[in-house]
Amino acid sequence: MNLHHIKRSDSCLNCGTRLDPETDHYCPYCGQLNNTQKETVGHLLRDLVEEFLHLDSKVMRSLVPLITKPGKIAKEYIAGQRVRYFHPVRMFLTLTVILFIVMGSDKSHENEPAANDAITLYGGSSSGGNQDSADIATISGVSFSRSALRRYMTKDGITDPSALMDSIRLERSVVNRLVFGLYLKSVDRSRMSFDDFLMTKAHWILFTMMPVFAIALFMFYGRRHFTVVDHLVHAFYMHSGVFLILIVSGLISMLIYEHFDVILVLLLPAYYLVSLRTVYEQSWLMTILMGLGVGFAYMAMAGFVFGLISVILVFVW
Predict the structure, then answer these.
(1) I want to staple 21 with a disulfide (CB 3.0 to 4.6 A). Which of 8, 133, 270, 271 is the partner?
(2) Tens digits of per-residue pLDDT, 245-270?
(3) What global pTM score does this model have?
């Protein structure tokens, strides 16, 4: 911006701080430009372009190394180099939203013929192609008619979850009981589909898993001068990188090659190990051993936390 042709004031128009109109181009207190001129269309457009280019450069500085150099951003952020990159929580939440959009688009594309594979509530046989796919719900691989289940509950007065699970041939496991309980809540409340209900909660469930992963990291790397917050930063950036890979993979699978997501079987574990090695600077052997330990600890604690959240949702939602 050309600062030679602006009209400066002796006080900041934003916070009132006293200024020297001869030398003070910006307010030393709030940082606003010392300019009394009215905004013009040209100024607005120029500021917009400058902000976009600044944001774009920050995006590229964050996303490119996030996916090509696992752990690099987390390591530099922990070391204090924070201005160049997106905040870890902000990046995590942004990529989570984008991932759910991509997953939703991919799921709607794949589930078009789902009605043909549905199991009827009463007979247990194929329902044929004359049933609306929007009426089909699936839990643990078992599909059933939503409307038929509602009729069964209202007309016959059957509301016992165990009896309803038997009617759709759903195994009475602990997980299935929790999931089916959530589904019955959705039937009783707003008629929101169970899939939609889970999607509205999934990003918060993922968010609560980040401290769990940070604790798992602290259990194995707690003696290497890293705080729990450092591990939390690493957790957010690592999961953001995984989400970015899933987003790119999902887009490629939808637009170019349907089975591209098979590559994730090798890509995601490699990304995880490289990120650990970059941040904690250990040998490959120690990284693999530590990575396995962190993974098992994380799965155990995450399973407990997810079960606890599910129980809370069953009784509260």
Answers:
(1) 8
(2) 888 888 887 777 666 667 777 789 99
(3) 0.60
